[in-house]
Amino acid sequence: MATAKKGPKKTSSNAKTPSSEKPAAAPRKSSAPEDSAARVNVAGFSDSIQLGSESSALFAKAAGVAVICLGVSVALGASDGDGFRRWSHGYLAAFGVALAITAGSVFWVCLQNLVNARWSVVVRRVGEVFAANMPLLAVLALPIIVPVVLGNPVVYEWADKAKVAGDEILAHKSGYLNPTFFLVRMVFYFGFWSILARYYLNHSRRQDETGGSEIAPSMTRVSGPAMIVFGLAITFCSIDLFMAVDPRWFSTMFGVYFFASCVLGVHITLILALMWLQGRGRLAKSVTTEHYHDLGKMLFAFVIFWAYIGFSQFMLIWYANLPEETAWFKQRFAGGWGTVSWTLVFGHFVIPFFGLLSRYIKRNKTLLGFWCFWMLAMVYVDMFWLVLPAVDVEPNLRAMDVLALLGLLSALVAGAAREAGKKNLIPTKDPRLEQSLAFENI
Amino acid sequence: MAAISDVNPFVNAPAGDSAFARITDNVSRIAEVERPPRAWYIAFACALAILSIFLGSIGWVVWNGIGVWGTTMPAAWAFPIVNFVFWIGIGHAGTLISAILFLFRQTWRTAINRFAEAMTIFAVMCAGVFPGIHIGRPWLPYYMLPIPNQMDMWPQFRSPLEWDIFAVSTYATISIVFWYMGMIPDFATFRDRATTFWRRLCYGVVAMGWRGSSRQWHRYERAYLILAALATPLVLSVHSVVSFDFATSQLPGWHTTIFPPYFVAGAIFGGFGMVVMLAVPARQFFGLKRIIQIKHLEVMNKVLIATSLLVGYSYMMEFFVAWYSGNKYEAFTFVNRAFGQYAWSYWTMIACNVLFPQLHWFKAVRTNPVATLIIGMFINVGMWFERFVIICTSLTRDFLPSSWGYFIPTKIDFMTLGGSFGLFFTLFLLFCRYLPMVAMAEVKAFHPSAHAHEPDHHVEHAGQAPVGI
Amino acid sequence: MSDSHEPQASDSGPPPLHGLLAEYRTPAELLRASKKVRDAGFSRWDTFSPFPVHGIDKAMGIKMTILPWIVLGAGLTGLATAILLQWWTNAYDYPWLVSGKPLWSIPANVPIMFELTVLFGGVTTFIAMLVLNNLPFPSHPLDHVRRFARATDDRFFLLIEAADPKFDETDTRALIDATHPIAVEGVPEDRKTSDKLPTGIIYSLVIVTVMSAVPFALAAKARYTKSRSTRVHIIQDMDSQPKYKAQRENPVFSDGRSTRLPDPETVAVGELREDDHFWRGQDHGAWVRTFPPTFRVDEAAMLRGQQRFGIYCTPCHGFGGEGNGMVAKRADELAQGTWTPPSNLTDERIRNMPVGEIFNTITNGVRNMPAYGPQIPASDRWAIILYLRALERGHAGKIADLEPAERTGL
Fold first, then answer.
1. Minimal Cα–Cα distance from C221 to chain A, Å?
2. What pLDDT, on a 0 to 100 scale, did the predictor assign at position A40?
3. Which site from B256, B329, B452, C187 is most exposed, i.e. has the minimal number of CB atoms within 10 Å?
């Protein structure tokens, strides 16, 4: 009698879907199998759901930009003559944004499957495509991983065996922070994420072809254990890549802090990607203001979540004032880094909080798009603030940093464009598709 | 149970001429029946007896001073604070169900949100008692409030304990407002069904003249949505602030940056444990099986798995960073927790919070009310021990070995702890007897026949819960 | 409020019509009817349902409420209140340093800023909802319509008020009939229920209001008057202890003191302190220039002196004794004008000062330096002087004082 059948997160049995919907949906889907390859025909409207030739054009452009940007960035880094020390830090910060977007996508896709979400079905494929960038990201991580394996302390001083031997704290941590174990972990993180992302994309696509009703529940079943492993992987990956830049500092919250950026990253990406697709006439009717509104709400919620985690981490360390912890924040509140910290407080929280508060803004594409670019910039500022104080006494944003960021983002766009061009942009045979198409906020 | 079903009028509730009438009837008759089921009387008598133990032990503490507890140096924060944090944690599930699940369009919440909200308020009341009596002079609590006093002094706003005052009282206020506002339409239903003058007067006064006007519903829904949006960060903040009480200190085992989200996850976990513990008997004895269904229990049990894993994640991170930090005090504290003098409480906590809830991975377990009830009880025990472990192991093993000790509770400690359940259940049973136990208006709004199918707006009414910010 | 009294025709004829009420069985019927009434251009009409009907806002043409803006304003007021409250109480009116935090500690103020924002916002949401909805609304003509009781159960109603400018009993009834309601009923105005509150309620409200002011009045009186009687305490445990406290009047002794002096002509064991040299640094009234014979000058004494100097002297005089300790630096920074800077212990004047006079200064204080005699045992005072002499020697040292091997290390 009570109603457990309409929420996006409902996880129990679907047996009691309103009777008016299920039989109505089934014949429509089976009536146009050919058509559904290129267009979706549900509930009496059709829509363009394939990228087609746009894909290769975008891939060529984005890949070109990526190669040029990364190439120039490396050249600039080499011209510093410091053995790529400064360049590596800038690259790591930019890599943080790329990782946030891609790992965030893996998380998001896993979550939508785990909770059996309905509203998000029309946008899920875009998330799956961005998640499938993971192998590409593993390749892009090589400039960070290889020096560690070679024992070069260009970013991580604990990679240097001589230094570790002479430092009590580093020696204590060497059971965890050592090149071999680091490599093993990195292979595990990126391997696991790549397999998981590929699993979702392949199964979701197979559903498009076969319409098998067992596929969606099997993806849900995988999501539970996958989410557990994901949680551990993102925690330790963020510790290894970012917290270990300063191997003396530690915070139990750090994994959660980075995770907040991941969730921001995926929602920014989804909104911007959908806007680009709709600008080219794809998914023009499937994705409505309602979906943007929901994505905007999640973006807003995680702007707050980031502030909550960031503030708690800062305040607890500031309050207890233990030297081994405060040193990290002391560095980040001294001189020009103080300005960057305050930029984060206002730019990453206060201003977008009021910017995204109104329902009107979340339902207005231009304004929402503006705030996505704003937040993307702020996620980068956050990563810059995490990594760069290790090498720069004063904040110094250089051309090679920006080029590395543009290069990595273009590489992600190129990877996604190539993958998106292969098949549909919507899981056309998902049993929840019609509810997603018809979804509405009040 | 034969005797109970004999007096239970709801099992054979007459089918009205519509689904809405059946919902109204099912819920209203619980409060309208002249004599509630005998089980209610038995439970109420037990609750009153336990409540009298509670009041007696509090009187004893106030009269003699808090020395009658085992609370003494080095464990200056022992049972009272453990109980406070425990009850505050229980109080999180209600607002979570009402607010967060509402924002996430989880319509299954309508079956349980009302009594979960009631549970929240009663749990916060139980929680509020403990710091009140632990201050030693419960007649001077106004010292903690920023009111001009005769000493011309002000509270110290840099203290986390002062933040607690604001967080808990704000939470209690907003929870009551949220709960009451949700009940207004249901009070109106009670008023309109009343057959006696006094019922009509009392429910009429609290319904405030609600007549279900659509113009009023419009503002009401908007207000409900805003309250949900405000209560969501509030519910996260309350246990975060409670965690600040510990985490701002420098004590090993307390000063950990993950405490705020860890406490919140634990609170949701414990609160949901209490909800399933209450939901199982409530649906049994009040004939609410058609409203609180097995599938609702199943969803809640899935939430329990998720929060159990989050709590387990926090335990693991604390251990990892205690080693990773290279701080020998931190490392000692965590080894001591697992293998020291309080190891028995630590492993109780791990078993109840991390291991038992994993049984819910099996569908047969999570759809079984009895198993649900038992695991819910284990979770509550485990969550109480979690606070005990945090507070007692760290306090009795601080930096100075000369001030190490062991906390031994007294009889009065156990009486105040056990007695607080009497307060909780007395209030809860009164609530079941006199107030709308299920949010009728909300259940109706999500009933299939509430969805008006309009041919001219195909997108408009496709069965999505109407929620958004 | 009672449904047992159907309105009756009074002497002045039947009561005028309040409006026309139509009853529907499903939300869909109500929605269709609402659209018709909306399109017909009525303004004073409403629909009633047991739950919010999805889509009724659009069907009735209800505009978005201003409630969110009111809440935003209230939330910002709460935020401002929290900031002002914490700044005014802790940083301005009653400045009090705690745990090394600044007087106005923004990070420590954030939790309460958040809580008050939510508190003000939440309570305002509720009150504004009531006010905008015109609640409480005790009596309404619809309360006397029997069938309307099901508006909170399972039926859907539509009411068009007679006060609407477009209302015409026949035409409007025809419009409603076209929407196929289950029933249509004319709602008469309510003449039985008085518009005024019963006098009993008014008097009770007045009395309650007056009574509730009493505690505040008493609190205000207590704050601005003086009283000799003790506070009312429920449990007189720690406030009234059966003992006389130091510096208080004591009727037991003739001199009225609680704190007793030792009897004249008596000395406690070990407190004779005859040795002027050791205890006062004097020899027949002149400051001694040597360490007392009972004080052993050795390495242990030097280390002890260094440690005690570090504890007691460095806050003002600094580790090198130059008079540049943290307290002195802070005082210079504040530049309040009342501060006498601590002496530079390595300068000529102190170097030539007899050790007895230095001992006396430590014991009894000088200028704004307090007496350390009560805190530092006499032997430690001598040890400090010993270390001070070493410090001074170091300051006056020349390169020639060093061994040749040490010189090269400079």
1. 40
2. 53
3. B329
> Within a domain: residue B393?
no
**In the predicted model, is pLDDT for residue A317 greater than 60?**
yes
How does residue A300 score in pLDDT terms, banded at 50, 70 and 90? very high
Q: How would DSSP label each residue in B407-431?
A: ----HHHHHHHHHHHHHHHHHHHHH
Peptide bond into B160 cis (omega under 30): no
CA A27/CA B188 separation, integer angstroms: 45
B322-361 residues touching A, CB cutoff 8 A: 324-327, 361
Distance CA B392, CA B406 (A): 8
Element (H, E) at C283: strand C282-283
Total structural domains in chain B?
1
- For position B179, what pLDDT does the model report? 92
* Every domain of chain C and the residues it spans: 15-191, 276-404
Q: Do B212 and C25 touch (CB under 8 A)?
A: no
Does residue B327 belong to any structural domain of this protein? no
Is residue C186 within a helix (H) or strand (E), and if so which, with residue range? strand C183-188
pLDDT score, position B35: 82
Helix axes B79-90, B214-247, angle to 10 degrees: 150
Give B391-434 pLDDT, tens digit per residue: 999 999 888 888 898 999 999 999 999 999 999 999 999 998 89
Q: Do B210 and C105 touch (CB under 8 A)?
A: no
Strand partners, C286: C283
**Cβ-defined contact of B181 to C96 (cutoff 8 Å):** no
**Mean pLDDT value of segment A395-414:** 94
Cα separation, B246 vs B116, whole angstroms: 28
**For position C232, what pLDDT does the model report?**
67
Q: What is the pLDDT of residue B192?
A: 86
**How confident is the model at residue B288, as a pLDDT?**
76
Closest A-chain CA to C57: A442
Q: For A173-196, b where at least 16 C-beta lie within 10 A, e where not — what string?
A: bbebbbbeebeebbeebbebbbeb
Query: Which residue positions in chain C have pLDDT lower than 50?
Result: 1-10
Q: What is the pLDDT of residue C245?
A: 84
Inspect the interface and report whether the beta carbons of C151 and B212 lie closer than 8 Å: yes
Answer yes or no: is pLDDT of A368 > 90. yes
What pLDDT does A13 receive? 39
CATH superfamily, region C276-404: Cytochrome c-like domain (1.10.760.10)
Three-state DSSP state, C159: strand
Higher pLDDT, A296 or A216: A296
ipTM of model: 0.89
Beta carbons of C100 and A321 less than 8 Å apart: yes
Which residues have C-beta within 8 Å of that of residue C366, sequence separation ≥ 6? none
Q: What does each C-alpha distance from B69 to B54, B64, B82, B414, B422 come to in angstroms?
A: 14, 10, 13, 9, 19
Distance from CA of B21 to the nearest CA of C (A): 5
In C, which residues are within 8 Å of A315 by CB distance? 107-108, 110
Select from B257, B308, B451, B454 the residue whose CB has the most chain A CBs within 10 Å, as the one to mutate to test that interface: B257
